[in-house]
Amino acid sequence: MTEPTHTTNAAYPADPPYPSAAADAHRQPAYQEPAYQEPAHPEPARRAPRRRRGRGLRITLIILVVLGGLGVAADRFAVGYAEDEAAEKIKSHQGLSITPEVSIKGFPFLTQALNKELDEVEVGLDGISATTDDGREVTITELTATLHQVKISSDFSSATADRASGQAHISYADLSKAAGDGLQVSYAGKAGADANRVKITGSYLGLSLSADGTISVVNGDTIRLRIGATPEGVPARLGDRIREKTDKDWKIDDLPGGLRLEKLETTEDGIDLSVTGNSVNLAG
Length: 284
Known about the structure:
By secondary structure, the chain is an alpha+beta fold. Helix content is 27%, strand content 37%.
């Protein structure tokens, strides 16, 4: 039996063979446009205007600092001028022999001046004198007074402080010099109620003197020195004559009106005094 013979029709060519798997692997895929993605950290829009605002703020701050500095300088100039004027007015009004030092506290000064009331003023007098009836003087040093709520008159011609407090000092050397006639005044320590004891030594009519005494404040403007018992070895009949030599009152005339001595305390370095006052009239 004869196998049938397959013939090819020239008008219909045979179908090409299917591509193999290896050919598929080398075939290039068609191009695809990548999908759009938002950036992870987008740039802020309109950065230039933001920089201009920052620059303007810095310029404004610089101007404010400069103006503030000029304001402080003007205020300090004004307070310095006012302190000098006040010192001269106090000296003239009180009839003082020395010019006080005046320091106006608080800031700003100009605001206080416009309100015509100063919070705090310090007045310093160094070297004022207290005098006895016979003309002997004792020097008071380091007198400082702090004045509170100082009210200025409407025309700025006078000033009055509601209250004041302060301190002053007298050295034993100055006290001895004021006692005169070879007397020496020194610290005698403290014993009981006699807290303000001093030792008085010297000579009189050829007799040696050595006795305890007291020192005190009288009438707010007088410093009083008194001897205690008649010194040992001195006849009683000479007691009054000894007291005439040792007992003294020194009156202060240079205290600004309204200030007064309140009390004193003896120390190893000298006499410390407390100063106080109400309605202290500084000038006018």
